[in-house]
Amino acid sequence: MDEIASAEGVDRKTVYNTARRAGLPRRQPRQTERNARILERYRAGDLVQQIADEEKVSRPYVSSLARRAGLPCREDWGRRYPVNHCAFDSPDAIGWWLIGLLAADGCVYERGNLITLAQREQDVDVLRAFLAHVGCPDRPLTDISGSERRPWSAAAGRYFEARIFSHQIQAALARHGITPRKSRTLVLGNEAAGQPAVWLGLLDGDGSVEPSGSRGAPRISFYGTSAVMGQCSDYWSTQLVLASGGAPSVLGHRGGLSKVCIYGANAARAADVMLAASPVSLERKRAKLEEIASYRPSPSLSSTLRNQLQSRKEISNG
Asked: Looking at residue 81, what is its pLDDT?
């Protein structure tokens, strides 16, 4: 096929597709001498990695070939870093927080059951918390600084990624809206949208916390798709004391995303709610939330004047 492709100035895929359309048989049908040899070695007890290296195939190829042939799994086989596949089936407080964090900064891949979570070097505490929650706290992090998959990380400093492989966890996350290609289509499930720890995780991933934001008052800002920010506004409208019974506004943000901002005393109330929601969160932002939670607004000038006028009125009536 390489010789044909080179002579005709096309790639191997074109040669392959042309042969298939013409009804020609595959060059490597399912029952090849190599496959038979792999199965024979598997039955004999050879190591899967050794078979894969010597037959120039991958470990999953050897395992899937053995499974299709009805051969039993190796009894002594185990993951080097085992995963608790039920970690998100019935989320606890930390599980809900991680669901929010994965909604913001996680990636779910359609192939390979791969789930990843990336953070800057200064925030790897959340990656450790993620790995601990899924049962493999000793699994090493992957340095993705300047990698081809994430070229932006070269200019942004060192970035690290936690990686796990689990079909069951992918299915559990999908029930809460975390699916492949979620960046522009994310909508949280109803149960997740009602969990304060989810909004804490979303804030840790895609949010900003400013203890002295607008005119010295604190500000908490959430960012995400317009659908998720609508859910964010609905949630906080039930948790905060808002003027005229309204809800926090959903505003436009750069890159086609939206944002919800909470200010002043309401930011302090939101900080209290989120800090109580999970004992674990991003350490850097948690410290700022604790600072905001202690915020007490000083009386405004209009409030002071109103109190003075009320006092004068009471004196004159007396």
From this structure: 81
| Distance (Å, whole) CA 14 – CA 34 | 25
Runs of H (alpha helix) within the chain: 2-8, 12-21, 33-44, 48-55, 59-68, 93-105, 125-133, 153-156, 167-175, 190-193, 196-206, 226-237, 264-277, 283-293, 301-317
Task: Please check the confidence at residue 290 and state whether its pLDDT lies above 90.
Answer: yes
Mutual angle of helices 196-206 and 226-237, in 10-degree steps: 130
Q: What is the mean pLDDT of residues 211-234?
A: 90
Task: Please state, rounded to an integer, the average pLDDT across all residues of the chain.
Answer: 85
Amino acid at 116: T
For 165-196, the pLDDT digits (tens) are: 899 999 999 999 999 988 778 999 999 999 99
List the 142-143 sheet strands across, edge first. 106-108, 114-120, 159-165, 142-143
Confirm if 223 and 253 have CB atoms less than 8 A apart.
Answer: yes
Question: What's the pLDDT score for residue 48?
Answer: 86
Domains of the chain, by residue range, sit at 2-68, 93-180, 197-293
Let me know if domain 197-293 sits in CATH 3.90.79.10: no
How many degrees, rounded to 5, is the angle at CA 92 between CA 89 and CA 93?
A: 140
- What angle (nearest 5°) sits at the alpha carbon of residue 54, between those of residues 27 and 58? 70
Backbone phi and psi for residue 182, each to the nearest 5 degrees, phi listed first: -85, -10
Classify residue 108 by its DSSP letter.
Answer: E
The yes/no answer on whether domain 93-180 falls in CATH 3.10.28.10 is yes
* CB-based burial label for 60 (10 Å; 0-12, 13-18, 19+): exposed
User: Pick from 201, 123, 109, 89: which is nearest to 164 by CA?
Assistant: 109
- What single DSSP character describes residue 147? -
Q: How far apart are CA 105 and CA 11, in angstroms?
A: 37
